[in-house]
Design brief:
By secondary structure, this protein is of the alpha/beta class. Helix content is about 45%, strand content about 15%. It has a domain of about 220 residues: Rossmann fold (3-Layer(aba) Sandwich), CATH 3.40.50.1100. Bound molecules: pyridoxal-5'-phosphate. The site of pyridoxal-5'-phosphate has 16 residues, from helix 11.
Length: about 450
């Protein structure tokens, strides 16, 4: 399997090269040249463990890592999860909740970033080279990426978060990791500023080569790949339990990474009726799927900060599919976005997609309702997914709602919704009072580049 850039300006790469490259050198995102069809293999996948299933899915996309090595990377990555099913599904009221928060930082990002950390290490050990990761986070990617690479010899990581805009728990999860290879940068700006700086640094090819940059944001194909697995895992379990022929998924969405993995699963032949895209007040994607116009607005801070995003980096991957793999059309749309602030695509051929928005009042109401009626505590991101997902429930099709974070990461929202301090987790309580480390930085690409160079020069 080879990987092409959405912008069409580079030769196709192997899996390992695409993973190490992160963003393509023409500014595009990598996608597999073809999509494997697993519709005939579903029965044989049904009884596999999570790690076995992950291998059976990933092997179609990874042709340059041996079976033994890929299995070992997968087992190491999912062995650290606290639940034997890795991503269990529980029936709650009218929906099935897919719990993706049993990893080390209590958010779904661990599913991909534990895998990516082990994958990077494997490849760097083979080549004997090193890597400097530059990442942007709205809260959860940062800690998950840091836990994926902390203490690893050949890797240094710089994580930019918008100063004061991540939750206190998210900040603690990042800044209490004081390993020498971990650098937290508190940037005076928004998440979109941080994400733009990452893109600028990658597009500065000289800097990128000089500093051996690596990417952990969902621009990295390996993250999407790892996330495809739990769509299969959950759908197969729920089909088995309910006898339904098809399932639907509701996905709380920010950067379009998670739901793009669901879209890949759909294209691979997983029987998905609907993929429900759920946004908070930052509803550019929900508006797009209901109107065919993708038009930029301002970012608003909400109870679900990991979804407070305007420019959804992975949306480019979907646009490329919509453009029938035409880089010319894709480049035209990206140019429109730059010059006009919007993209209009022809008649929506959105197949499995449905979309809606869950605002702050609905988020709080959903958390309260699920706690009062079902004794189940949702975090505010997952609550957005449930609030929107339940609007699209069809009697005969189970609705699987992705729970993307443990409620203890967002205890303030839970307190506001229920009036009680219910959301606790020992892993978070343990962080209180630990020493922290962070560096303040302006929202300026040159200043961030200087910080990266300074640490590399100092060997720290
Ligand atoms: C990152 C994140 C999301 C959004 O995922 P995308 O892949 O960016 O769409 C939703 N919920 C939580 C808790 C997250 O950390």
């Amino acid at each position: 399997m080879r990987y092409v850039s959405t912008r069409g300006g580079v030769e196709p790469l192997t899996f390992k090269a695409a993973v190490m490259s992160g963003l393509a050198r023409d500014g595009g995102l990598f996608l597999p040249e073809s999509v494997p069809d697993l519709s005939g293999a579903l029965e044989s996948l049904r009884t596999l463990s999570y790690a076995e299933l992950a291998y059976e899915i990933m092997r179609h996309f990874v042709s340059d890592i041996s079976e033994t090595d890929l299995r070992a990377i997968i087992e190491k990555s999912y062995g650290v999860f606290r639940h034997p099913d890795v991503t269990p599904v529980v029936a709650v009221g009218p929906v099935h909740v897919l719990e993706l928060f049993h990893g080390p930082t209590l958010a779904f990002k661990d599913v991909a970033l534990q895998f990516l950390g082990n994958l990077f290490e494997h490849i760097l050990n083979e080549t004997g080279s090193s890597m400097n990761i530059v990442a942007a986070t709205s809260g959860d990617t940062g800690s998950a990426a840091i836990y994926g690479v902390r203490g690893r010899k050949r890797i240094r990581i710089f994580v930019m978060h918008p100063r004061g805009r991540v939750s206190p728990v998210q900040e603690l999860q990042m800044t209490t990791v004081t390993d020498a290879n971990v650098h937290n940068l508190a940037v005076e700006g928004t998440f979109d500023d941080c994400q733009n700086i990452v893109k600028d640094l990658f597009n500065d090819l000289e800097f990128r080569d000089e500093c051996e940059l690596g990417a952990v944001n969902s621009i990295n194909w390996a993250r999407v790949l790892a996330q495809i697995v739990y769509y299969f895992h959950a759908a197969l379990q729920v089909k088995e339990k309910t006898g339904a022929a098809k399932v639907s998924f509701a996905v709380p969405t920010g950067n379009f990474g998670d739901i793009f993995a669901g879209y890949m699963a759909y294209r691979m032949g997983l029987p998905i009726e609907r993929l429900v895209l759920a946004t908070n007040e930052n509803d550019i994607l929900a508006r797009y799927f209901n109107s065919g116009v993708y038009s930029l607005g301002a970012v608003a801070a909400t109870l679900s900060p990991s979804m407070d995003i305007q420019v959804a980096s992975n949306f480019e991957r979907y646009l490329y599919c919509l453009a029938d793999s035409s880089p010319q059309q894709l480049r035209q749309w990206m140019a429109d976005l730059k010059t006009k602030g919007s993209i209009t695509t022809p008649d929506a051929r959105h197949g499995c997609f449905a979309a809606g928005r869950g605002d702050t009042a609905m988020t709080l109401e959903t958390i309260r309702d699920y706690w009062n009626r079902h004794g189940y505590l949702l975090d505010p991101h997952s609550a957005v997914g449930v609030a929107v997902g339940t609007r699209f429930i069809d009697e005969s099709v189970p609705m699987i709602c992705l729970a993307t974070a443990h409620p203890a990461k967002f205890g303030d929202a839970v307190l506001r919704a229920t009036g009680q301090d219910l959301a606790r987790h020992a892993l978070i309580d343990k962080l209180m009072g630990l020493p922290t480390r962070l560096e303040k930085a302006p929202a300026d690409t040159a200043a961030i580049a200087a910080i990266v160079r300074r640490h590399i020069a100092a060997g720290a």
